[in-house]
């Protein structure tokens, strides 16, 4: 049985039950952002190879912005009357995706895997925007702003994986390991 997230109170103009749906939606977004922040930091610490410094330095601003996104989502949840569950145990228990699977690896392998991670996060945010748009323009606006930044971060990653002819090395990859392996083969 799913947990009832209907708050005792919420912001004016939104029904409590609708706020509960938004809180549930944002709870998943919070988990995804906290997970992404840790994954990005993992990449930052474990990247090696000729592109090390470029990728190492590219990742930290993404880490910082994703942490800000998580904070914004958590604060929106509490404004709606919810509880922002940000502990590692809750994140692991409630996430619907597998843990990042690449350890110490060259920059292009990590970027290949990270491209797939960003695709999953972006697809989920787009779905969340649609749901939020039917309930609350303020939450929808928050998610749209984050979507723009996440898409830009994926563009930065993909710039390392794309040939001059527009071929994306990770095209068709279904797993992080497959994307990491394809990362170095740009045709």
Automatic annotation (TrEMBL):
Top-level taxon of the source organism: Bacteria
The name this protein goes by in its record: DNA starvation/stationary phase protection protein Dps
Gene: dps
Xref: InterPro entries: DPS_DNA-bd (IPR002177), DPS_DNA-bd_CS (IPR023188), Ferritin-like (IPR012347), Ferritin-like_SF (IPR009078), Ferritin_DPS_dom (IPR008331)
Family per similarity comment: Belongs to the Dps family.
Domain Ferritin/DPS: 25-162
Pfam families attached to this UniProt entry: Ferritin
Region Disordered, residue ranges: 168-187
């Amino acid at each position: 049985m799913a947990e009832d997230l209907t708050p005792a109170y919420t912001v004016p103009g939104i029904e409590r039950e609708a706020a509960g749906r938004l809180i549930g939606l944002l709870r998943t977004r919070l988990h995804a952002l906290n997970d992404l922040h840790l994954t990005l930091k993992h990449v930052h610490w474990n990247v090696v190879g000729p592109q090390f410094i470029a990728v190492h330095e590219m990742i930290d601003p993404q880490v910082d912005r994703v942490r800000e996104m998580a904070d914004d989502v958590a604060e929106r949840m509490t404004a709606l009357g919810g509880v922002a569950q940000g502990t590692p145990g809750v994140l692991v228990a409630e996430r619907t995706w597998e843990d990042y699977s690449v350890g110490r690896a060259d920059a292009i392998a990590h970027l290949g895997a990270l491209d797939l991670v960003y695709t999953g996060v972006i697809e989920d945010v787009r779905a969340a925007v649609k749901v939020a748009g039917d309930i609350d323009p303020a939450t929808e606006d928050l998610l749209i702003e984050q979507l723009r930044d996440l898409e830009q971060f994926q563009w930065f990653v993909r710039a390392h994986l794309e040939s001059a002819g527009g071929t994306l090395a990770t095209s068709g990859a279904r797993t992080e390991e497959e994307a990491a392996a394809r990362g170095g083969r740009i045709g």
